[in-house]
Amino acid sequence: MEIVATGADRDLLLELKGELDHHGARDAMREMELAIDAALPRRLVLDLAGVTFMDSSGIALILRAQQRMGLLDGSLLVRSVPPQARRVLDAAGISRLVTIQ
């Protein structure tokens, strides 16, 4: 799992690439938290276009991002979700908690 972080004007974009499974999610969560702590963004965008596989570990990462942004009084947007990952998110009802574009 690779994360590319880009920040500007209190916006933080994290582009996730690779498999977001049990093994990849642990490192991805740590990288995400470091990027959030460094930028203290008002808005976090998780771009999942490069995610080739996602399981429930990806849900945990998204919920952790939502929690961290809540502590910062910020917002979270999840975008460019591939079909397989979208099925996982839909099955868990994540769209009721997080904005998905």
Tell me what the structure shows.
With 101 residues, this protein is of the alpha/beta class. It has one domain: Transcription Regulator spoIIAA (2-Layer Sandwich). Helices cover 44% and strands 36% of the residues. It has helices at 22-39, 56-71, 83-92, and strands at residues 2-8, 11-20, 43-54, 75-79, 99-100. The protein has a five-stranded mixed beta sheet with strand order 1-2-3-4-5. α1 packs parallel to α2 (56-71).
Question: Key terms for this structure?
Answer:
101 residues, Transcription Regulator spoIIAA, 3 helices, 36% strand, globular
Quick rundown:
The protein is of the alpha/beta class and about 100 residues long. It has helices at about 20-40, 55-70, 85-90, and strands at about 1-10, 10-20, 45-55, 75-80, 100.
Structural class: alpha/beta
CA gyration radius, whole angstroms: 12 Å
Binned, the helix content reads: 40-55%
Beta-strand residue percentage: 35-45%
Indicate the mean pLDDT: 95
CATH architecture type = 2-Layer Sandwich
Quick one: overall form?
Answer: globular
Number of domains: 1
Number of strands: 5
CATH topology: Transcription Regulator spoIIAA
Q: Could you give the order of the helices and strands?
A: EEHEHEHE
The main sheet orders its strands as 1-2-3-4-5
